[in-house]
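User: Show me a protein chain along with its predicted structure.
Assistant: Here is one chain, sequence first, then structure tokens.
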Amino acid sequence: MDSMSLNNRGGHVFQGKSSSAILVKAAVDLKGSHSSKPPSQPWSVAPWEVAPSRPKYEFPGDDLAISLISLYFNTINIFFPLLHRPTFESAFAATLHLRGDGFGGTLLLVCALGALYSDDPRVHCAAVPSGSPAGWRWFSQVQLQGQQLSSKPTLYDLQHYCVRSHFPKRTASPRACWTLVGIGIRLAQDIGALAQDIGAHRLKFRTRAVTPEEELEKRAYWYVISPPYSLLTGIRVMVLFDTQVSGALGRTIAIPTHDVDLDLPVRCDDQYWEASPRNAAFCHPPNTPSLVDFFTSFLKLNNILSFTLKILYSTNRIKTLLATGDDSWQEKLVMEFDSALNKWYNSVPVHLKWDQACPNVIFFDQSAALHCSYYFLRILIHRPFIPAIQSLAPPTMSSSPIPSHCFPALSICNTAARACINVAEIQHQRRPNNPLVFGQTAVFTAGIVLVLNTWGSNRTGLVPDSDLAVHRCINVLRAHKTRWLSTGPLLY
């Protein structure tokens, strides 16, 4: 089939079962000795299909780059283990970024993200537009794949979409994340990474010991990140991010998590990946907490979120099918989701249980992010069943309050909202320079729930004591704004 392509630069490109290419292959197999006339004008690559010229990247100085790389791994990679730190730092020390455009683009994006957490004045540049976020001069240099669409995308192309999607979520265009991740998933499908037919690279993980490169590929499937350190690690996080952003924006998920057939990440921190005289490869010390535990728990929570969005926030057609012959189908669904969420909560590792005095700041931040996401999902499950308080008629002297037992959904959401804000506030007090990952949407949603409780208290019968909690919510979001510009619109 490669001989039929416009050029052979792309190698094998995935074709699914419904593709006409399958019919072509069958015809070629049956052709046998039948003669055919070669084309008078062979296919050739048009000038506009040729890959663009090599970019001229401008990197930060080595000392600043080392600082920004460290910030990236200490603030982002601990939540989404897309890159293997020892490998990445070795590649940087070997100046691979000066010889390879793919790794060079990754380095620039890593530096741009690290700059969002840096107080070094060099992360700002007078040459970039006024008001641009820290790290913009490095972020803006990396162009996404688009001019060589006739060729197969590389892992670096996928990586750039994946790492790049972090930046707008923390700056002024969070909606761009949804588009970037969606394109990244399509590129992954082009490679065949998401195809259930191409299960060889999945099944081999289950039949023998995994290698460092394969583990990073496996993790990439949930997000998409870097060669040779990625495909499956990145795709994992990419699917996770797609679900999270789709839930925040109320948009369709590009690929449901149940369509992703991958093992969970190996429970092993970066320093134990390689074999040593004393330990085998991927041998994490027993009875020792792992940084990957958060990622695994978050993936499981994300599965519940994916089904919640698919069922409770689906089209009317799907709801009609679900409701056939059963008037209590909604109540049963909510009970099932609540049960799944309770089981997940009980499965959270001990070191990630909420403890506001946790001495390990990394586990503390991971626990805060995990619990805020948990409370947000609890709200999301019950939110469709909150009465439309805004549409209720204004109360009159003859209006009687609606009993609180008629509003269990609002009561549950109210409790979850308070717990979410409490976790976010404590995390901010301990870590003022580290905004809560995935905290913006959770905290903002919690605040709106409390506003609904306050404004509708005379109709619901619930106690209107949410003013203080709402102000705590605003204070947390205002603090996030100093690092993440995208928080600003939520406050006005």
